[in-house]
């Protein structure tokens, strides 16, 4: 056994948060090594740990994996969260890619300059409620099943739930017109591994605050 996966990133959400979510949903315990300074990042870059000189990096099964999507795909396949066949996987990938697009918008909101914040918020709400959420609402309505793909729990469910909760942090009533997504949120949140991750004291990170941005800039710029 190669021990627990070890996650290298700063002590915050960013691109690592979806990886934390997926490991937690799979019931996998993991360790975290937080980057506190620019020197911490430079050390990883100089010792050859970062294939493309950037984090997130996850040590798992004897590999030092980088590139968020590659890491997520590996975890999903390893822990049976990637559907039962190629067609399931294709659907899962499509749903996840759209979730990632919305997640990126939500994640970058804190970094917007003051004069752009209002427009950026409007873009988030517009894309969430007019482009993305109607698709997932329709999927759930059309097949009438508990999960997005193949009537079994997959990474698509995990990553959609993560993004739904982030969207609600941004605008608490954002799911008002989507009753099936509301019940999906409640249902997936009650899966034991996820319920545990949503409890206080878990390794889930809080939303990034504006006061945290200067510290991050010192590490990454």
UniProtKB/TrEMBL annotation:
Enzyme kind, highest EC tier: transferase
GST C-terminal domain span: 85-208
SUPFAM superfamilies found in the cross-reference section: GST C-terminal domain-like, Thioredoxin-like
Listed GO MF terms: glutathione transferase activity
EC number(s) recorded for this UniProt protein: 2.5.1.18
GO biological process: one example: glutathione metabolic process
Keywords associated with the record: Transferase
Pfam families: GST_C_3, GST_N
PROSITE patterns assigned: GST_CTER, GST_NTER
Keyword Transferase carried by entry: yes
GST N-terminal domain location: 3-83
Family: Belongs to the GST superfamily. Alpha family.
PANTHER family membership: GLUTATHIONE S-TRANSFERASE, GLUTATHIONE S-TRANSFERASE A1
This protein's name: glutathione transferase
UniProt organism field: Fregata magnificens (Magnificent frigatebird)
């Amino acid at each position: 056994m190669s021990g627990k996966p070890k996650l290298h990133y700063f002590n915050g959400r960013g691109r690592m948060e979806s990886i934390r979510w997926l490991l937690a949903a799979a019931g996998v315990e993991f360790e975290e090594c937080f980057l506190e300074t620019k020197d911490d990042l430079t050390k990883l870059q100089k010792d050859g740990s970062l294939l493309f000189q950037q984090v997130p990096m996850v040590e798992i099964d004897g590999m030092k994996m980088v590139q968020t999507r590659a890491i997520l795909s590996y975890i999903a396949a390893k822990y049976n969260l990637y559907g039962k066949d190629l067609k399931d996987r294709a659907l899962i990938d499509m749903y996840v890619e759209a979730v990632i697009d919305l997640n990126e918008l939500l994640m970058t909101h804190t970094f917007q300059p003051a004069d752009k914040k209002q427009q950026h918020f409007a873009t988030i709400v517009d894309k969430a409620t007019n482009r993305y959420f109607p698709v997932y609402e329709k999927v759930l309505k059309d097949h009438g099943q508990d999960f997005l793909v193949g009537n079994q729990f997959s990474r698509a469910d995990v990553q959609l739930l993560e993004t739904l909760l982030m969207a609600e942090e941004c605008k608490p009533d954002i799911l008002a017109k989507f009753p099936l997504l509301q019940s999906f949120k409640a249902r997936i949140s009650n899966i034991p591994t996820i319920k545990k991750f949503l409890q206080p004291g878990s390794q889930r990170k809080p939303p990034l605050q504006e006061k945290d941005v200067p510290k991050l800039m010192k590490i990454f710029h």
